[in-house]
Amino acid sequence: MSSKKDIQNHINQLMNEAEKPEKLVTSSSFMDDLNAELDRIDAATSTKQAAIFSFVEIRKYAAVVLILILNAVVILSFGNSDQTQQEPEFSEYADEYFPNYATLTLLEQP
Asked: What are the φ and ψ backbone dihedral angles of 49, each rounded to 5 degrees?
């Protein structure tokens, strides 16, 4: 039974402290030490230089620009080559696939 009373007394003490919190007293240098430690952590995690583009990013953008330029050159060169080549006319294929009917009638006669 005494353990229940001890638990109840402990709970009552915690509840009284929660209802009337007291101000925590720290040493005078605590805030200075805390700010110094936070500044040290920030300095360790932040970048050393503020740069808009790093060398790696410049290489990536240069590669993309180079690929775009090569694509444009290839498209323009194939576009010009199609215009310079002359398409064979239908009459060139007509003799091959559709023979002259006059010739066929001559072959059929005895």
From this structure: -125, 145
